[in-house]
Amino acid sequence: MQKRLISSYDEINDTFVGKVDGEYGYVADYGISEGVYLGINSSNMPTSIFVPNASKVFNTSKETLESADVKISINCDGICLNFDMCIENSRICSITCENKLGIPNINCLFDCNI
Q1: Would strands 106-111 and 2-10 be described as parallel, antiparallel, or unpaired?
Q2: Residue 93 burial by CB count (10 A; 0-12/13-18/19+): exposed, middle or buried?
Q3: Taking the CB of the first residue and of the last residue of the chain, which one, N or C, has fewer CB atoms within 10 A?
Q4: Are strands 46-52 and 70-76 parallel, antiparallel or unpaired?
Q5: What is the layout of strands, in order, in the sheet containing 46-52?
Q6: CB-based burial label for 65 (10 Å; 0-12, 13-18, 19+)
Q7: What is the pTM (predicted TM-score) of this model?
Q8: Among 47, 43, 54, 7, residue whose Cα is nearest residue 24
Q9: How far is the C-alpha of 95 from the C-alpha of 85, rounded, in Å?
Q10: If you compute the radius of gyration of the chain from its CA atoms, what whole number of angstroms results?
C-alpha cells in the first residue's frame, strides 16, 4: 500500500513530523525507539511520526531534515515492526522492534512524492 506523506521539520525546535495525507486523529503515540514516536488510529494503523531532537536522534544535519524528499516504509508481520526512513534516497533511520502496538500485517510506503 502506498500513501502520500506530508512532512515538516522545525529547525528551531529540531522537531520532525510526518503525517499520512487524509488521516485525521489518532488514538495513541507509541515510542518505537529512543526518540521516535509512531501515532496510530483506532484501526491500529500508523498515521503519523513525531521525532523531537530529530537531528540527534537520526544523527544527521538539520539541512538534511529540511528536504521535501522523505519516504517512510513500515512493514509488520504481526510480531515485529520494521520502520525505515529515507531522505533523498539515503536511509537515515532503520528500526526493528516488537509489535506491542497491535498493528496488523501491513506493508506500507509513505512517500512525499506521490
Answers
A1: parallel
A2: buried
A3: N
A4: unpaired
A5: 28-33, 36-40, 46-52, 15-20, 2-10, 106-111, 70-76, 80-87, 90-98
A6: buried
A7: 0.90
A8: 47
A9: 9
A10: 13
What are the angstrom distances between the C-alpha of 18 and each of 14, 37, 79, 88, 111?
14, 10, 24, 15, 10
Task: Read off the pLDDT band of 113 (50, 70, 90).
Answer: confident
Q: Are 40 and 48 in contact (CB under 8 A)?
A: no
Exposed e or buried b for every residue in 24-58, given b needs 16+ CB within 10 A? eebeeebebeeebbbbbbeeebbbbbbbeebbebb
C-alpha cell at 67: 528536504
> Cα–Cα distance between 24 and 56 in angstroms, integer?
28
H/E run at residue 56: helix 54-57
Tell me: the pLDDT tens digits for 23-75? 877 788 889 999 999 998 888 889 999 999 999 999 999 999 999 899 999 99
